Amino acid sequence: MAPTASSRDVTRLRLARHGLGPVSGTGRGTLTGPLEVVERLLAVQAQDFTAARWAVGVRAPGSSADDVRRAIDDASIVRSWPMRGTLHLVPAADLGWMLGLSAPRVLAGMRTRRGQLGLDDAIGAQATAVALSALTGGRQLSRAGFLAALEAAGISTAGQRGYHLIAHLALTGTVCWGRQVGSQQHLVLLDEWVRAPRRLEREEALGEFVLRYFSGHGPATLQDFAWWSQLTVADARVGLGVALGRLVELQVDGITHYWAAAADTGEAGGPPTQRTPVLPLPGFDEYLLGYRNRGFAVDDADFPRVVPGKNGIFLPLVLVNGRVAGTWRRAGRPGSPVYAVTAFHELTGRQRAGFDRAVQEYSRFFRPDGASAAEPAEPP
């Protein structure tokens, strides 16, 4: 029979698996760099590129936004649409098998909108030909440059057509976002950019998907995984069957949760412990977004304050003892930022001071190598 666990146990274990738990004896976090973070989580939501970089940085103390850029520039990490039709950062070697599982459903879901935009299979094939012609041989184009190439070939990119054409090419494995030049990421051919992709058979890939999710996000339920990946429940169950021998089961309030055992989980039965008493997490952070059931991280009554107006925009989070205690935002003038907190319940003086210290790490993270001020840049 699977052992039982409390909600505090779930929170403590999730903090550890997310790389947000206590530092090691060396004074470093459990995850030591951008690639290790992305490999642990498998996918970091990245339609907001500044938020995605901080999601990596907050889990790898001492790293910088430039470290994330270098990991992208050397094709260790890639930004594309691996699942849910949403941009994510993923380990470059894993993108191909993820697309093989998720892209067919995403493309099917886009079919109606593509029809409304007048994008049929013939135009898709023509856009693929343009991409191959423009990018083969290690060439790269900015978003604007690639849209201009499509227009020159007689393919209108007006309205949302340009976005859908690029997304279609990414989902079908033709292109991905590559090197950052200035504030712009450039499109490259996926097969040229990712030189050593992992090749997995379908059932093996499903097992890998399940295992990696529970390794980075566990303890969690199979329903959490199905929501996060947007795979069918049937495929999720196949993947669970493949991965089950490498997972640990926990019963939490009579519901089965899974996680991958590791050495960085903290003392059994101990309280939820963060690396620092207050952590400023970005918007769209996997700690909250990565689950169907968000009750382990935030009170139901407070959740609408994280996603005001239910508009799909997840605000940056103030995390205290593994629970969302409020939201925060960056304000002030360029070069002289101010960080404002909207607390759900009154913070203690020590907690506010802890937040003030923690956001200094955020500023340091975005400071360009050798520069004295931080100003996050946002590729498309």
Automatic annotation (TrEMBL):
<dbReference type="GO" id="GO:0003677">
    <property type="term" value="F:DNA binding"/>
</dbReference>
<protein>
    <submittedName>
        <fullName>Winged helix DNA-binding domain-containing protein</fullName>
    </submittedName>
</protein>
<dbReference type="InterPro" id="IPR009351">
    <property type="entry name" value="AlkZ-like"/>
</dbReference>
<keyword id="KW-0238">DNA-binding</keyword>
<dbReference type="Pfam" id="PF06224">
    <property type="entry name" value="AlkZ-like"/>
</dbReference>
